[in-house]
Amino acid sequence: MKANLVFPALAALVLATAPALAQSNGNSSTSAPSGGARSSTVWTPDAMGRASLAPRPNVDPDNVRAAARDRAAITPDKPGTTPAADLGDAAGPQERASGNVLQKPLYWAGKLFYRTPDGDYVCSAQFISPNVILTAAHCVRDGDSGTWYKDFIFALQYNAGKYGGIYSYDCVATKNGWLSPSFEKYLYDYALIRVDNPSRTGNFGTHWGWRGQYADGVKIGYPGGVEHGEVIQVERGPLAFVDGVVQMKHGNTADQGGSSGGAWIGAFSDTEGNNDGNYVISVESFGYVEEPGIDYGPYLDENFKDLWDYVENGCK
């Protein structure tokens, strides 16, 4: 098995540990519930229903391209330009449909609810190991001020107000790069949360350092422009490396608010009993106003793996 590829798995039966404040390790930063309180005690179904869909960031493409030029000048062997081989399939979006959270692999996904100084919000998220969920960094922490959000809960298999389980958390972490003052922060727009109980359905596989191995992918999440964000959507389109980040032309021009943090999946498979495929390769991060139906996500590399190891160890 490749060192940078982890296969989907059934959840292991392990006991959860109590929430605790953890320290940073130089590569990552972390937050924990105040006083060790379980955040699930402060959310009611009504409060969940009132939570706003987190806006998907719209960034200035000129800033992205300028940052890519700067990176290419410093490390020309790294992603930062767009070789023809990285432009993906010009055919465009391939399919789009509402999904079923009771079937593989969507039964590993759900909604992440959280509180900010400005109100309650919701993003998309999914299990990538029995006790760890993946989402976007902008769903857990302000990338400018560094302020951590709080009271996270994960509603597994969310569908129209119903869900298969609610999970509180032990720790949450991002890379310190998420606090960069420039567009560089979006290279690190991923966050990991260790939850208080193992997944009841299992988890996605994960693939980092995968460049050149997937021509297309599937994006999942809860965009507000479809079914008011109440039903998970499955959208397929070609992948490309553009200016150092991953691009997907999924074709859904509806409002993407609420879909932030949803997985981009390589080798998507909904066949039960087949453990090949379903590798998370990026997450929904940002877009350009002038490019509806096209989104961008961070490339998962060794920095992502460092963060994952850190969170699996309780943010220690």
Tally of helical segments: 3
Instruction: Tell me the Rg in angstroms.
Output: 18 Å
What is the overall pLDDT average?
85
Q: What is the count of distinct domains?
A: 1
Distance between the termini: 27 Å
* Tally of DSSP β-strands: 19
Give the strand content: 25-35%
- The CATH topology name reads Thrombin, subunit H
Helix content range: under 10%
Residue stretches low in confidence (pLDDT < 50, at least 5 long) are 10-28, 32-37
Output the CATH homologous superfamily.
Trypsin-like serine proteases
H-E order: EEHEHEEEEEEEEEEEEEEEEH
For the biggest sheet, the summary is:
10 strands, mixed
Q: How do the strands and helices of this protein lay out in sequence?
A:
Layout: E1 5-6, E2 28-31, H1 45-50, E3 52-53, H2 61-74, E4 95-98, E5 109-116, E6 119-129, E7 132-135, E8 150-156, E9 165-167, E10 169-175, E11 191-195, E12 205-207, E13 216-221, E14 233-242, E15 245-249, E16 263-266, E17 279-283, E18 286-287, E19 294-297, H3 302-312
Parallel strand pairs: 3-6, 12-17
Antiparallel strand pairs: 1-12, 2-10, 4-14, 5-6, 5-8, 6-7, 7-11, 8-9, 10-11, 13-14, 13-16, 14-15, 15-19, 16-17, 18-19
